[in-house]
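Human: I wish I could look at a protein chain and see how it folds. This is the protein in question:
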Amino acid sequence: MPRISGIRRLFRFPSSEARVRSDIDAEITLHLEERTQKLVAQGQDPAAARAAALREFGDVRAARAELEEIGRRRVRHLRRADWWSDLRQDCKYGVRSLLQAPLFTLLAIVTLALGIGANAAVFGVLKSVLLDTLPYADADRLVRVHARWLDGSMVRGPMSAGTVADLASRQRSFERIAAFVDNVSDAVYGDESGSRITRLAWVDPAFFDTLGVTPARGRLLTPDDAASGLAPLSAATLVPDTALAVLVTHAAWQGLLGGALDVPGRTVRLNGVTRTIVGVLPRDFVGPFGEVDFYAAFDLAPVAARPTMARSAHWLSAIGRLQPGITHEVAQRELTSIGADLAREHPEANSGFAITSMPLREAMVGDMRTPLLVLMMSAALVLFIACANLTGAVLARTLSRRKELALRLVLGAGRGRLIRQLLTESVLLALTGGAAGVLVAWLALSTLRVVARTALPDSADLSLDGSVVLVTAVLSLCTGLAFGLAPALSVDRSDPQVALRTESRGASESRRSRRLRGLLVAGQIALCISLLAGAGLLARSLWAMTTAPLGFDPDHVLSATVQLPPRDYPTPEARIRFLDQFAERLRALPNVQGVADVSLIPTVPSRTSFSIDGAPQEPNGTEPFVLRAMVSDDYFRTLRIPLRRGRLFDVRDRLGAPPTVVISESMARRYWPQGDPLGARIRLGPAAQAAAMEVVGIVGDVRNDRARPDAEPMLYRPSRQSPWPFAAFVLRTGGEPLALLKPMERELAAIDRGLALQRAMPLRTAVGAGLAGRQLPVLLMTSFGALALLLASVGVYAMFASIAAARLWEFGLRMALGSRPRAIAGLVLRQGAGWMAIGLTGGAVGVALVVRLLRGLLYEVAPFDPIALGAAVALLIGCATLALLIPLRRATRIDPVTALRTQ
């Protein structure tokens, strides 16, 4: 084959692959003809000369293929170079064009920053809560195992030690199962600077191995570190507080121990016991039950060996790691089978519940999935409204540039080139707005870390990481294409000759463009009314929860918890002495109107099973569960819980006296529908082992769970008969509750300097904390609704201002022919009312979809609540009407001479 480099000049400026192929064929043909002519001139026969020329040239097909491949590469290279060159030109021109309209550019960037930033922030929350990988090895194989009570009282309840032990020995679907105490306990941490309350969790020694956690320093807990045996502290404390080895979390290592590098092997005092730190957990570790400072290990064997305690007390949950290849569904079927076997073997203790499980992430996230999806939908609606708003604004700006675009078309620019130029400007706007939106999202997430910390899972990081920024960039690009596509395509339908001949903007605006902008406004109204209706329904639900009667008076009450170390207060008598002494000192404080102690404040009760002497047993042999609290004599008077019948606790209800209980009205109605509960005798826990207690009084209902429309049955026991090692003191005052905090701390230190107050806050604050999960969706959705209303109002104003400006010549002609301003106003209002009606009609469909999504979050509010829906419609119509006033005023005050002169 001859050298072909000589004809590479063909590819210096190729325009297309087809042109390259044509030039190659022509060049090869010319080359063969020239060689043939030379051979003929030398005396050869033309046919022989042609054959010789072909032999000298070589394989024509191979040469053509090689040259075509070179040409294709060259064409692609030049096209890429041209594309990047055109893109740079478009970007430069787009920047200049946007800077020439600073007000439009600024408003567009602000609109995009709010819309994109809201979506980026909500996606950051959604990703942290639902998408991020948990800080455990193979986290998708982890499940949480718990009990589901058949009477519906508990969906995720604890299990007994015997149940956990049997479950671990019989199952085959898990590599291992590790138990942990369902509730994190308080522990008094003491050092040279004083005492403070820390959080201590009790876990099985295999707990961290099951999770797949590696310590940052030191080692994990082992069976040799476990505390064994039982301590006669209370029914809720089955493991003695004598474990001598603890793990410390990274936060506690930094906060309590100063981040000392030699922390493994150091000792700390918790609840009066000197313990050795054996390791530090990783920075990103978050336990399945929230924030904890220290972890200690327990041994279940002694508990499971006690017949009276192995199945009567329910205080454990469990974490399981699935075997490779075993699905959650398969494991659940096995758990159901084991639960049924245990119910047959131990009907007195295990027949009342089923053993269930759920993925660990779902257990840690709780009920946040639906609210977060609602917020994501709300943020998306805001962005849609912003896109519709900007589409109308960019369309109006494109119409105002019709002469410029028409002139470029006349001078030879292709319509595709103009479309790309306009899309480039829209994408530049969107990317700039997206960059500002990242800042908005960062500020929003920083705020949410403060105001919504209690409403979100502890595993939620709420960080603006690279994936959120990448999603924001993609969202910005798509947004720019979304709101810029329709205005850009309008260039393809314009007639440059008409545009160059026309002086008036209105004359060149087609009915199609006006209809498009009207539809955009109607769409904004439809989306906005959907968002406002959802926000109104959630706000009405929150208001119903907030204003529903609690059954007690939390105002002017201070609450604070005190933890009594078992080493210092080992007996009921010692704990009673402390409770009486501390209460007496608190009563002596000025402006204190009442003092009482309770095992847990009203919003955080515990549960217990019970049976009634002489009452028929439940058909399935189960015992019902009710809420329980240990209270002092003055508890009901201090919180103003009314006595309905019988008596309250007094000096007759002391340690060693016949046990007594007071029950709530709802408990009396449910379990004694026809009889009198006063004087009845009930037993807590399995009836065979529990002592009988006499019902001496009935008090008013207390709503502990504010998300429930009714009060749950509840019973109270006197704390002076069975004192727990922790108590919450409630003090009623005539002034500011927090003013009693310092005096309360002084009185506590006067009794025991090793004790500390925890969770000291006004009781009203503690009650409100239970609604944190409900307040977050309301707060954010209301914010999104306000933003959507603002954007929709701006869109209505911009659309009708543009349409009114486009019809100024028509309005001037009408007024010159005798029309009155009232008639012109009617034209504008009828046009506005028509598009509003279309928007409200479309909004009705959106409201139906939103109501269907929010149905599970509503409380004591009808899905189509007339107040919420009516307020949303009235608010939107009012804002839209205000937005119409300026265009209406401009249209009715036009000077006919000036308007006609412009044409």
The radius of gyration is 39 Å. The longest strand covers residues 194-203.
